[in-house]
């Protein structure tokens, strides 16, 4: 059975996407430390080039098939049957695009706010981009693991070097939390490798059938890695610290891309590899998701720190994502994937915005703000768009995602649907309260006289606004990528012990 | 493309132009584009009315909005009798209020912003009433809610205004929570969220029951009540009425347009639109009727003692919306929509008159500090008087016809609670007349009780404000004439026109009974006016004495039955307390973090202990080595 569409053009676009940012990083190495501007320009040019290179993925993607596309395969370590194997399907393709876009915005937003060790900063950022793209493209489990762990290093540096006052604690916490999870996943990978006949090929692994008990063990091993990344309740406490301490670009990447990888892991590995365990564990996963939605939301009501509030709101929003995914029906999963994208856009944009005002006031304390709408009207308009998208107002992307998720969840379990729908009330509560305290009421002394957005900041925020309305008004432009892949995934999860696919192989 | 799409999209275009170019370029000319757009919509709405009057209907999709698995929904339009009535109400009121705002908002620093929001509101409201499916309805529903949020909080530097905007949005979300679930149940039942197939198949499920959260419930009752949750929020019915009086923080034209004439009636529109579903559930109808009646009575009693000009009218709006639900609940949907339509004129007029008064009084709202304004503002006085007569049900005016139809159909209809709600409705008619004229007498008659400065400044409002007043006044007088009841020699044309969408509610009673119901409602109206005259004109010392005599009752009414305080006490404060003390203080900090930090700490402690063994001193290692050899030797020897 053919599982991939080979890259007919012969142009290794995915490899190029991974290599290009690395090349940029390498180039920066050779620029003198004194030449700050050149460092930034190289960072900007390479991130733009990578984005431009990724656009054909959007245009040329074949939306009629669930098979892997743009595939590249080369031997890596033949002795262990490890391969350099890349490809994209309807689940991963959009996240590569999101990663390349977000990197540009991070470069722009760090243009003036990063004053120390600029060179190292932009190197970290570009290495980060390359690792992120690698994670989404890998079709070899070991290759995936390498990229997965490789992401930790630049992120660790971004938080630990350019972060806030408590950065060392936050960076260590982030690192150890995720590392513990990943190590358990590594054990799982090795178990699979031996059981399925010495292969790391994800597509081949998907076609094997595993005994139920083994599936359960593996499910929880993978859970350790993915749930931490999402982060799901109760392993979410690294996120507020990491977000609060990270520099703006770090927060944006964390929110927009990094935490999506947990959900991506569930979709790519847990569900297709372990269908029986997935079905069996659905009640647990739905429960944890509902808790995350409500818990994360209610906790936001008592936050006094801008970034911490948005960080906790991520816990709530990612709860919606896992809720949709584990509803195990079309609306739930498609809504979940779309919401991953949405959350990346909206929360990314919120962190960009917070960074913009933080650069001016150097305070994250909500109580220091007030009346910003009077002094920075353009900024206030952008922020309200992000706020509304975050609370899922129709015509913004948040609505489409949340609606499909809640519909799917309600279909799967009425209780899950009803309880998590309270999240939309709580969400409106904390976001509007935040907006009121920062933008409305009397102008506070720390805010008076601030300048509105400059051109660079406007350019950094504009793509997010466009995406918010594009997805909100015409979501089919994005949902259509997912249909065949999600359909296939659902069939796989419901296929019993994967028997159908084994028969397919023989035929 | 059909011209119908332009009805909402003209205001949308105006919004986009204004919001992008308004601040820097259009500035005090921002109203032009908005007024042109809404006037264009009005013309197109009239053509749509003519089309529908000539027997045509439209139901078509523009493009597919969301497609996922078996779920498909479009942006599309349904133009039928109910839609065109709403179109006329919305575009007419909107156009007049746009024009009024030119005078009222003149010189405001956010002039362009105000008109952008008005345009956005008009767009959302039109999308709401023109939808051909539930999700687009929801789109418009949230859209108008958003504009309401923006406009209530228009003076955002004021804490009270920004509080009120936030409150309106969040309270509405409680209603939308149910509304959303209603849409889910509809989709899971019918496999679609388009009106047409849903309503045509609803009959097949008339007796169906489903499991909902572990209970067996009647399916249609479930759907109807979930949808009604949305109505309760948007139309400010009990127990979600708390946001509307606070919404008066917004500029007065907004109160007239959004919080009286159009947006708040969306809940009534929803019930009317879903009449095929509501009609299948006697329970749901009863809930609707009783909610309406109780809210109506409740709000009217609060209105008796308030002193804030706009809040009195706001409570009157809550009360009149209750009337509309009362009508729908007894199955008289067309009477409810008829009242919606007449109410739009006289209530918008009342608010605009209030705005005119505020304009003259320099923003003063306390009617105890007014008086004798009729001398200075004859146009405002006259139009407001007419509007008050209309709401009090003075024979021949718009309010009379719609109110009479509701009361008669409640009295004579088949609803089991019909007689009860009729009685309550009649009581409300009395209270309404009383508080409306209390307002008139305190504001326009007697002696002026404000400051000298204010008195010096009193003047009639500019033409751009008084002309809309006069035009709305025509509506407040004559809009009821389109449907004169049979016993007065008319043909009840409105109900006849609405029949294809809303069905026909037939009263079962004799002509004598019908005359009696009418006579009672008219006479309680006069009694209310008379009592107001007696208390505020002939014996002006009386109200103070009564409120002293019954100070407990007065206090409860004045404080709106302490509902806001109750919510704060049982919902808001406990939630924040839990967030602070339990979730952050205990779960996150003491339990999860204890494990997270505890594991590495104990590892560190363990390895710190282990490290002590590695002292780096040769003697220690030699000693341990020797001890080891001894132990091994001992074990070997003793074995």
Number of strands of chain B: 4
Tell me, briefly, the overall form of chain A: globular
Q: Outline the biggest β-sheet of chain A.
A: 3 strands, mixed
Task: Please state the oligomeric state of the protein chains shown.
Answer: heterodimer
Estimate the mean pLDDT confidence of chain A: 88
Helix count, DSSP H or I runs of 4 or more residues of chain A? 21
Shape type of chain B: globular
Which structural class do the helices and strands of chain A define? mainly alpha
Could you write a compact summary of the structure shown?
The complex is a heterodimer of chains A (507) and B (639). Chain A has helices at 13-29, 36-60, 93-109, 118-137, 141-162, 167-195, 202-207, 212-229, 238-245, 248-258, 260-273, 275-300, 306-325, 330-361, 372-375, 377-390, 397-412, 414-439, 455-473, 476-493, 499-506; strands at residues 4-6, 68-77, 82-88. By secondary structure, chain A is mainly alpha-helical.
